[in-house]
Design the sequence.
């Protein structure tokens, strides 16, 4: 398939075919069938929304395959409930794929919220869970407000700090609507993710001050220097622009994901292991769900209708780009870089998987 | 009292005397004794932490007294529970002082969290509640993670927006520790609060780009222009520096405070009325509380110990300044501008209240 606006080095791929192939790859890597399907669902969902960094393009090759092969990630974990209350639970992910325990955790939070009004599930001993927004969005689909977050190995400096001490510690919040697309915020608590530095470096461009520092903790506008130092700045960047707020939010995510679960904060996390936190707020226990959703519609439409201050840029709403991208990609397919397609198809060939992306 | 480092136009005031006077003022304004004491406690707590903008200096004169006198705020409200589940409740503040219903709401959230592991309370029909951190901190004092937030009348533009559509929508998160001061994040979701513009205007200085816009929605470095336009920028400021994240966080606070409670999002709030959201996470239902608190201590000490990248600026921790300021002010008193002292003492005289700050 080809469509106008897709770069020359990208090819459009059918989402279902992609899901089938990715699930088969993870099954070959010894995941139970259902778990392999869950991982494929989560990754392709990110690609449908246009969150390419957290879809099939980066982490299958960079994280999941190598760590499953070297046994850092357990393919067939036994998820355990370490403690439980009527509205909470603490789960041990047994070092399995983060996506699997995370879907289970959010389902459990939703189940508890159905009864008591709110459910919160903390996860220890997990691994990279992909895009946080997939889990918060699960709650929104059940007419609940969903919250999801994870900690990660250090890559972000504290305000005024020289060394990376916090992960990019993403936070996602989703809420249901009636007629318009749901609210979906999915943000790293750093100014940007490392992915944006890669893109800038690839294009030979500069980066704005406030994204990254050099090895000495000084702001840099050179993306290569920022990538080499592995030091991003917290949202806000400088003290003047609220860097202490991004820093504080990053710590809050670390507390809820790492300290509450017991796996540890960013700087003491075991190699490639992390903790998560999920929460579902059952709106209909507070008030009539349709009244809530109609008010969400009104709010969103008012925001979208507000005049722009910058030529060529309209006021958007968190989740709008994801929803419109998904609608378009469900029709036309997901554009993947041909190197990604080559990688996945070669992997499939090695594994004797018949489903190929290039037919 | 005078102490080195206090400006000439400030006088040190004993916190207990201040609390007694402020409670007497609110009692005179027809609040029940207990409610008047609650309001005084909350306001003086903000001053003890050094959050001067939300203590006795600004809003007694600017908001509470005039709105109690003109009946916009109900002095003796009947707080009602509109709906309830074992872990949640929706309260109607009956248009009373926000501090009173907020303390009640957080106590209720804590009570529910004691039983089920987490409690969440939404509040509709409330008014300005002072510093968000007072309520999240209540949970931390009970060995819980506390979350508090409120919406507010529009003062912040969406990313690329020309008109203010969101309040500064502050968000606070607190968590308990063992030996070091507790984690306490209390942040507006705008880059800065309007208070910082007042200070800059007073001193005749400029403001950094990313704080405010002029009436056309264009960034301004003139604090007077920013104050006149009543248009602040969301945390992050520009798209490059993550303004869409601050914008998204502001909406999330509006959803949890205004849409969930039913009072409405920023742009449709009734005059001077707002909604709040409170949540308490009972750590000991997840895991052993001392293990949690010891890990908090370790995390904080590691962060404080990390080398600085900027001469003269150490790496701090959210809540550190508040804790050290409180310890110092409990010893030496709270520095108040003499105009504030004059206002409070005149008010007390008019009301035949014998407690004066200048003795």
Sequence:
């Amino acid at each position: 398939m080809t469509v106008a606006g897709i770069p020359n080095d990208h090819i459009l791929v059918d989402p279902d075919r992609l899901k089938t192939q990715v699930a088969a790859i993870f099954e070959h890597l010894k995941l139970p069938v259902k778990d392999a399907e869950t991982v494929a669902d989560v990754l392709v969902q990110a690609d449908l929304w246009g969150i390419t960094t957290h879809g099939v393009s980066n982490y299958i090759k960079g994280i999941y395959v190598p760590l499953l092969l070297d046994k850092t990630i357990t393919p067939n974990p036994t998820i355990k409930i370490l403690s439980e209350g009527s509205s909470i639970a603490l789960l041990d992910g047994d070092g399995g794929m983060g996506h699997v325990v995370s879907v289970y955790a959010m389902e459990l939070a939703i189940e508890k919220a159905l009864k008591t009004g709110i459910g919160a599930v903390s996860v220890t001993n997990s691994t990279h869970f992909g895009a946080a927004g997939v889990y918060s969005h699960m709650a929104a689909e059940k007419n609940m407000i969903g919250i999801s977050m994870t900690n990660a190995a250090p890559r972000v400096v504290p305000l005024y700090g020289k060394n990376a001490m916090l992960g990019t510690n993403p936070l996602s919040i989703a809420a249901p609507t009636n007629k318009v697309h749901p609210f979906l915020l999915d943000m790293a608590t750093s100014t940007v993710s490392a992915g944006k530095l890669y893109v800038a470096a690839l294009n030979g461009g500069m980066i704005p001050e406030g994204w990254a520092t050099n090895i000495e903790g000084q702001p840099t506008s050179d993306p290569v220097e920022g990538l080499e130092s592995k030091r991003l700045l917290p949202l806000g960047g400088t003290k003047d622009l609220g860097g202490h707020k991004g820093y504080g939010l990053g710590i809050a995510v670390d507390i809820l994901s790492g300290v509450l679960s017991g796996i540890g904060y960013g700087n003491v996390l075991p190699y490639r292991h992390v903790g998560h936190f999920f929460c579902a707020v059952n709106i209909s226990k507070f008030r009539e769900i349709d009244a809530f959703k109609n008010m969400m519609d009104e709010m969103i439409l008012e925001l979208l209708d507000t005049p722009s201050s910058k030529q060529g840029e309209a006021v958007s709403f968190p989740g709008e780009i994801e929803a419109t991208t998904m609608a378009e990609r469900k029709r036309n397919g997901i554009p993947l870089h041909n190197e990604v397609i080559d990688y996945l198809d070669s992997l499939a060939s090695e594994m004797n998987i018949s489903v190929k992306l290039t037919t």
In short: The mean pLDDT of chain A is 95. Chain A touches chain B through 89 residues (CB under 8 Å).
